[in-house]
Amino acid sequence: MNIRSETISDYPAITEVNILAFGQDNEAKLIEEIRHSDRYIPELSLVAEVEGLVVAHILLSYIDLVGKETFQVLGLAPMAVHPRFQRQGIGSALVQVGLEIANIRGEAIIIVLGHPQFYNRFGFEPSVNYKIESPFSVPEEFFMVKPLQSYQEMHKGKVIYPPAFEMV
Ligand SMILES: CC(C)(COP(=O)(O)OP(=O)(O)OC[C@H]1O[C@@H](n2cnc3c(N)ncnc32)[C@H](O)[C@@H]1OP(=O)(O)O)[C@@H](O)C(=O)NCCC(=O)NCCS
């Protein structure tokens, strides 16, 4: 398996993997919207290849954390592994590489809405532990954060997603 940042020629395969993983095209459309926005970070749109084929994708892009100050922080979404390649460690490997790149970039914190069974292993914790408020009415354990080396206590407040996320 090889993990690298996306290139333009990966776009169709990324669309397909997302449609197959989610059973709908909303996430694939969200990725396209983000790519066209100022929230897109090319090096944090990562693909996993097996034998030269893209089988998984993860996107980290900027969202807002609004407290006394507003910070741009990383939102992890969407993330998709081709159904035939799930539960083989590929999703975990993508998250690990995403965390490493985010740390090297000096990002403060990563925010995700997802399955705690999957994200807890990387050190994600309920956002309430860090005084970070979810914009979604979901149980606390599903809205998680992973503070990075540059995290400071001032990184707290309410999370605001760009309008493009309303489609998922
Ligand atoms: C969730 C997903 C990204 C995980 O990627 P993956 O490569 O299958 O995950 P890994 O093999 O690295 O890790 C497997 C672990 O993830 C968790 N996991 C995987 N799929 C899960 C699911 N649908 N529900 C809950 N937990 C899940 C399990 O804890 C599993 O551990 P186990 O095999 O020991 O039980 C992938 O299964 C997927 O694309 N699912 C459909 C799309 C989706 O739901 N994306 C949103 C992610 S929040």
Automatic annotation (TrEMBL):
Residues 1-149 form the N-acetyltransferase domain. It comes from Mojavia pulchra JT2-VF2. SUPFAM superfamilies: Acyl-CoA N-acyltransferases (Nat). This is N-acetyltransferase. GO terms for molecular function: acyltransferase activity, transferring groups other than amino-acyl groups. Transmembrane segments: none annotated. PROSITE patterns: GNAT. Pfam families: Acetyltransf_7 (PF13508). Gene3D superfamilies: 3.40.630.30.
